[in-house]
Amino acid sequence: MGGGSGGGKADKARRSSARVRLWVARASTVLLWSCVIHLAAYRELWAPSVLTMWPGCLTHPRVVQRLPEAGAVADAGQREAARAVALPPKRIYKNNGYLMVSCNGGLNQMRAAICDMVTIARYLNVTLIVPELDKASFWADPSDFQDIFDVDYFISSLRDEVRILRQLPPRLKRRVEKGFLRSMPPVSWSDVSYYHHQILPLIRKYKVLHLNRTDARLANNGLPMEMQKLRCRVNYNALRFTPEIEELGSRLVQVLRQKGPFVVLHLRYEMDMLAFSGCTHGCSNEEAEELTKMRYAYPWWKEKVIDSDAKRKDGLCPLTPEETALVLQALDIDRSYQIYIAAGEIYGGQRRMAALTSAYPNVVRKETLLPSNLSLFQNHSSQMAALDYMVSLESDIFIPTYDGNMAKVVEGHRRYLGFKKTVLLDRRLIVQLVDQYRNGKLSWTDFSSAVKASHTSRMGEPSRRQVIPDRPKEEDYYYANPHECLHQPDYIPVL
């Protein structure tokens, strides 16, 4: 009996041990699958050093809904029916670190900076964190990147070139939150050697580098063709507006098209522009004083004492609404055309717009075309500017009255779309002709002929980008004429 009792205990012990091993195996299996699932969920954060080095289920191309190109007219039904497309395969490379960037300025200044920073990240083999947008500028727009651009498409469509993450991996994010972050502005108009020799060593040393004030930090010229073309790919493909912005922008274009041809007039006659530039031509003494006070109120606007008359004669002021009306008439812009104002509130209101609305009675704005649809975009200047951008691309003629960032970037985009007519006004000559006409020294016929003759080669036609060694600020801006990306004729005159 004692032997049988001992054998029974041994059997129980063996069965108990077997059950323990079974539960351990099951628990291990559950734990293993849990790890796999979490790794899959966080693969975008860990991929640079772990997962993307191995092909398989974690790296197969995903499929996303491809939205129509910017400016394309499409209703909601067409958007829903947009064909899904396979994304490019991920680029496999050794990650040198992480790059955070903070863009400054308005929408188009930030847009160009984003294109530059993506290109720099690609050629340094670093992971880019989705850029931060300026919230402290004059416009105080609280919009984040994903409020303006389709962030998922931005990340996925470029994954064969550069890895882009929404945020840093957790360990590095905690370090940054504790204040361990190297932050600096890059040197303006730098070529790729600066980033390889000065910026890359810092990224390798600190693992994370934050670049602030990223506007105009990459050279216009002298870069490898591949870099120039990547800048275009980011600008004209990857940077799509959100579906909400694209849908409303397309509706604006539809409303305009239904009523006939339309001209987009980028009329830079807002209060902040006049205060910043010091241009007060046509303003009352009280208005001139108000603008001067505003200029002194912003310490980062470095130029304070400005001779408005001298600046205007040098062609450095935006045209006034009155001057603009004369130019449109001189260029024989049909009176029946719609004139879409792509700008903020015009300084002086209806009083300053009277000459333009008298010459062109069909002056419209987005606020008058679809007033009930703009509530979600109010107080978000960059989102409102995105709507103007879409309409500007689709217009029959685009005419900027000042060569700011929007004027330049839209000019380049319209070149990319097939050299669509863009009238690049010679302001220095125009103010001379306007003054002569108003003083009776020129007849209307002579004034009109002179304006036409001086702008026959300023319509956005193909041309080589001007290069001025050692003076990059004075040469043609890359995004106004990215000729490396454009279908050019065999002969292009050098301007």
TrEMBL record:
PANTHER family, per the entry: O-FUCOSYLTRANSFERASE FAMILY PROTEIN, OS02G0726500 PROTEIN-RELATED
GO MF annotation: an example: glycosyltransferase activity
NADP in keyword set: no
Keywords: Carbohydrate metabolism, Fucose metabolism, Glycoprotein, Glycosyltransferase, Membrane, Signal-anchor, Transferase, Transmembrane, Transmembrane helix
Residue spans crossing the bilayer: none
Cross-referenced Pfam families: O-FucT (PF10250)
Membrane disposition: Single-pass type II membrane protein
Family: Belongs to the glycosyltransferase GT106 family.
Superkingdom of the source species: Eukaryota
GO biological-process terms attached to the record: fucose metabolic process
GO cellular component, one term: cytoplasm
Protein name according to UniProt: O-fucosyltransferase family protein
Location in or out of the cell: Membrane
Pathway the protein acts in: Glycan metabolism
